[in-house]
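Q: Give me the 3D complex with KG4.
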Amino acid sequence: MSAELVLAIETSCDETAVAVADPFGRPLVSRIASQVKLHAPYGGVVPELASRNHSLDLRPLLESALAEAGISTSGIGIVAATSGPGLASSLLVGDTLAKAVAVGLGRPFYSINHMEGHLLSPFLHPYREIPPHVGLIVSGGHTLLIEVRGVGDYRLLGSTKDDAAGEAFDKVGKLLGLPYPGGPEIAKLAVAGRRDAHAFPRSMVHSGDLEFSFSGLKTSARVLLDRLGGVPTGEALADFCASFEEAIVDILVIKLLEACRRTGRRIAAISGGVSCNRRLRERAAAAVQGEGVELVLADPAYSTDNAAMIAFAAAARRRAGIGPSPLDGDINPNLRLA
Ligand code: KG4
Ligand code: ZN
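A: Here is the predicted complex, encoded as structure tokens.
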């Protein structure tokens, strides 16, 4: 048997994903069956549709991932699955199949927190030992600043009081009539816009803590659209998107640097779907210069939901001597990281 290859399954939301990784968690195969098109007409994820399609897609995806890795199930050393946070009926599909495979093969099972997957993902490709650092996770459901003292040793520094950064993008995308998810669509339009065309609020940047708030931004977007007499087009739409994107990026960069100052950590990592945002990547890279902070960005291929990050977190836990997880553990839609 190849030494401890990791099989990981991720079905927490609307992506069915399977990965095979080496014992360090370096991905050999990472497959994703996206449901984005399926949910797009509804402007958000429909839980019933999501779980039904996980059930349909997961097994063929698993078989094709193993074929691509050139192994049969007997080549699997450990099995991992996302156990939360996420949609209960979606989590159950991946968790159940992963446990069945682990039991059937007599292999250890690792139950992984989806947010730990995102948190550690900046170090999976290119591969690097996970150093103590400050991690900023910006996804559709979460905005978290976390001090990573070691694998499995996380301290929550701050989170959002209302909407997540990705959620703000998606909600304003909806207001603008853009396809779901709105984040990448706004980012595309923003490229041609003026970032100082509109003064969107930078909520909580002077709050003296590391908390975030994005709901005011969404409200001011709505007010501005009313003032403009509806959704603008052409250059005016680009200006709107660029100014809106700049406000979110400003807030994220300011808080990330503040977290580095407060903790004294010299490495900052950004992960989650919003970390694909090119403006955020550029602005964060520029901001750490002169601060003596090294920036590590998740590879865009592993920023949105994927199973490679789940395999990586499982491998990191195993190498740190943490786990495996009990087979009678339950999924937890509200699982917290710290
Ligand atoms: O991490 P993720 O795939 O799913 C969750 O676990 O939530 O993140 C999805 C989020 C969505 O809100 C989407 O709009 C946002 O990531 N996103 C972006 C970009 N690409 C994805 N937001 C801004 N700019 C992008 N380029
Ligand atoms: Zn995610």
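A quick observation: Residues 114, 118, 139, 305 surround zinc ion (ligand 2) (CB under 6 Å).
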